[in-house]
Amino acid sequence: MKQKTAMNKVFAYDTTLRDGAQAQGISFSVEDKLKIVRKLDELGVTYIEAGNPGSNPKDLEFFRRVGEIVLKNARIIAFGSTCKVGTKPEDDPQLASLLSANTPAVAIFGKTWDYHATAILRTTLDENLRMIRETIAFLKLRGKEVVFDAEHFFDGYKANPQYALEALAAAVAGGADSLALCDTNGGSFPDEIYDITGKVVTQFPGVFVGIHCHNDCELAVANSVRAVQAGARQVQGTINGIGERCGNANLCAIIPNLQLKLGFDVIPSAHMQMLTPSARFVSETANIEHNDKAAYVGADAFAHKGGMHIDAVNKNPVSYEHIAPESVGNARKVLMSEVAGRSTILGKIHEVDPSLGKDAPETKRIIERLKELEHEGYQFESAESSFELLVRKMLGKFTPSFQLRSFKVIVNEPAADGMNSSALLKINVGGEDEMTAAEGDGPVNALDRALRRALERFYPEITEMKLTDYKVRVLDSSQASAAKVRVLIETADPHGSWTTIGVSTDIIDASWRALVDAIEYKLARTKPARNHPGSPR
After folding, report:
1. From 10's CA, which of 53, 368, 398, 488 has a CA 20 to 30 Å away?
2. CATH number of 438's domain
């Protein structure tokens, strides 16, 4: 990052998959991480810090597979620490694991607070500087772009500014491409961040300075923006601000604050409308409730209820909206919300029927139906396949592949050979009934296997499918066992993967709806004519 660049260019550095994954209650699977990488690359972030390959087998598998993905905008970063006390970098197994990730860039964190060097690492200040300098030089000799994460930098600077700067100088001497100043404890204030960052930028000309803030004082976004105003040109954070303790700096607020408010170039302008869908996608993938009150990307960020507000917004939105919601992919909400802006919905409708305009009666009916479904608990940002099927149904371009007659699910405990559930299913295809039974590891697995077994005779392509992910969320915990649940099911075949949704007060019913959509979507994508008996096509 020592190359010259425009003065207003800021590099977005996402650490959702590493720092964000340290948040309580979040555990990304390898498939989750790969999906988020694709989404972040589409959004246009510059760097994706994806994990520590030396920490667990899951990250090792992830780095092996992510190398097969062709990225358009982002560079993958593997994360690790300086070599251990008294160890040469070439003899450090953690650094060997870091290199095995085969990423073009790496991030190395090191101690810049003298207290941490002596009390936590229990080494000398000079040895700590040696570890920083030699680790970075070792990685640079192997062709890596190196980001130095100056851990606890602001606390370290306030305690001993000379040593904190010496630690940065050691990183620069080793060849670091950028210096990320970390407010690791999240306790600094914007004026402190601005002043100290400005001094670092002045002292190390020609080296990119970054900022990495935590939100323990609810100041991470403000601190990140002030650091950029002081000269930082790399900003680290996570989608939706997820992270350890109170979270990390929220890129979903930082990016539009910098780009739309202050004129910095952070992501491609055309990609800004992907911000809200991306934020909701990460929430769904992490299986956490999306924050409706989040700035820019929350469902309530542009919501209007008071009569005077609504009247004013109808006359001129600028009266109560600081930006146009569509600019970040969000939508205005007046009394009842929409799942997406009209232009986004129209784009999906055009995939089914390109002839429909935004004011067509069919378009209006679809939007109204989306409002109703959102009120019931549906969210289609991570279930676009179900949304496409809905559009096809409402436009009269859908014929069901089968009809359900009945099903029964039985759970047996203890499990036998890993199977604790069985399902009995009866369906009708083109006037012909078919009854099957199957066992499974849980009621949904049993139901899925029974349904696909019943359909294989009519639709052989069903054998290509497999259920790859299943998520369930209680939508209103105050209702206890009577609460609605939202089920998301991801299915894959050799040609790709897709996600479908079901909502019900009955988890089996919600799962059934998502399973049916998954199969109908697969069959809708199958182009060749079917010649088997009983086909409704």
Report:
1. 53
2. 3.30.160.270
Q: Which structural domain, as residue segments, surrounds residue 469?
A: 403-525
Q: Where are the alpha helices (DSSP H) in 257-360?
A: 275-286, 307-315, 342-352
Give this prediction's pTM: 0.72
Whether omega before 190 lies within 30 degrees of 0, making that bond cis, reads no
pLDDT tens for the chain, 537 residues long, are 444 456 799 999 999 999 999 999 899 999 999 999 999 999 999 999 999 997 778 888 999 999 999 999 999 999 999 999 999 999 999 999 999 999 999 999 999 999 999 999 999 999 999 999 999 999 999 999 999 999 999 999 999 999 999 999 999 999 999 999 999 999 999 999 999 999 999 999 989 999 999 999 999 999 999 999 999 999 999 999 999 999 999 999 999 999 999 999 999 999 999 999 999 999 989 988 889 899 999 988 988 755 555 567 667 777 778 999 999 999 886 542 343 445 557 767 888 888 888 788 888 888 888 888 888 888 887 788 898 999 999 999 999 999 999 999 998 877 777 788 999 999 999 999 999 999 998 899 899 999 999 999 999 999 988 888 888 988 876 555 567 999 999 998 877 789 999 999 999 999 999 999 999 999 988 754 344 434 333
What's the first-to-final CA gap in the chain, in angstroms?
57
For residue 25, the SS3 value is: coil
The values of phi and psi at residue 104, to 5°, are -70, -20
Residue 279 located in a structural domain: no
Q: Is residue 325 part of a domain?
A: no
Q: Is residue 131 part of a domain?
A: yes
Last residue of a domain, one of 241, 267, 293: 267
What's the token pair of residue 300?
């309530």
Number of alpha carbons in the 13 Å side-chain half-sphere of residue 205 = 1
User: Residue written as tokens 């049916």?
Assistant: 516
| 56 within some domain | yes
DSSP-derived letter for residue 208 is E
Chosen domain end from 244, 267, 290: 267
